[in-house]
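G., the chain you wanted modeled:
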Amino acid sequence: MSILIVASIAVHAQTQFWSDTFEDAGAPTSGTRTPSVNNSSGGPPATRYFMRTGTSSISLVNVYTNIEGSKFWAGEAQQLSPVVQSSAQSVTWTGINISGKSGMSFAGMFASGPANFDIPPSSPVTDYVIVEYRIDGGAWTHGLRFFPYNPTIATYLSLETTGDSVGEGVTLINSANFTQFTFNISGTGTTMDLRLKAHVNGTSEEWAADNFRLFYSSLIPVKLLSFDIESKLDANKLIWETATEQNTSHFEVERSSDGINYSRIGIVPAKGNSFTKEQYSYTDKSATGKCFYRLKTVDVDDHSEYSKVLFARSEAENILKLYPNPMSSGNFTIQSNLLESGKSIVKMYDQFGKKIPIKIEGTGSIRYCSTYALAKGIYYIEVERDGNTVTKILLKN
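Predicted structure as tokens:
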């Protein structure tokens, strides 16, 4: 049994207080938007760019849809041609007033074009799209991070959730249809800065962002002290605790496989009125693979609010563990349920994509591996079975 996520949250109603739709007038609603560059080359329409634009001004393999208004921010081959700037560019919003705001969150629309964004070992650099924030001039904090999902080939962008700079394929943006993504903002203060960063160094690597918004919350009579997930082989158990309740009817548990489209999977009756701690739980016995969960609190007047979203990865999903990692010798162990039955293939590559000979011993989900003398550096272990492939980084000290 493993606790995946622990959150101390309050159920809240969201009120929008800032936006940037990238239109010609009225955007942003407050603060200052400052891009590192705002230019293009090629065309018209432009074939290389980092700029505020519309669809008619840029050459697209897949035409963007679901645009808010007529303008958005977009990038492709951002170093331009001839090379006149860095492939890494940014847009920064400064001086956003957040005085008196708490329980803040961000929402934005994102889209992406063809599936050929770069990541080592096939490229010396990694492409990305990142949104981050800081409060009162403090350190930048990541909110959304999109990276290529496969560390061995050029591929599409995917939402990154574990801090390893590799997209997990949780929610993909390889579609030209703008899709909303959100994150919660920790802390409060007087002013906030936002920053959109992107590294794109090739043609046909198209991305775009639109309709950025900020929200703050006002507490409703139910306060959640915690919202946890216990993940087992065949189920995910949701556990939550309330500090106070007032005229609460019930809780609805909702689940999503992509973080966007949710469906109700269970209803748990509430205590109704309570000023002491109350504990609740719901076991999802049909959980498979990646699961997003949120809690909908409904009062007796049928008003409702949502909790934060929690993410669980079922133990029954394809996993890959390497240990020791980092390793000091050429010996290490692989553990993966892809190895349990059927024909599996294990491969090892260095950071330049060169295949490394590997000797594998053992049966079942755990295999013992040895290689020739390895130089210090980064290596990639790939396990494949029946068309399913999992890749993980192995470090050599």
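The chain has no helices and 29 strands.

Shout if anything looks off.
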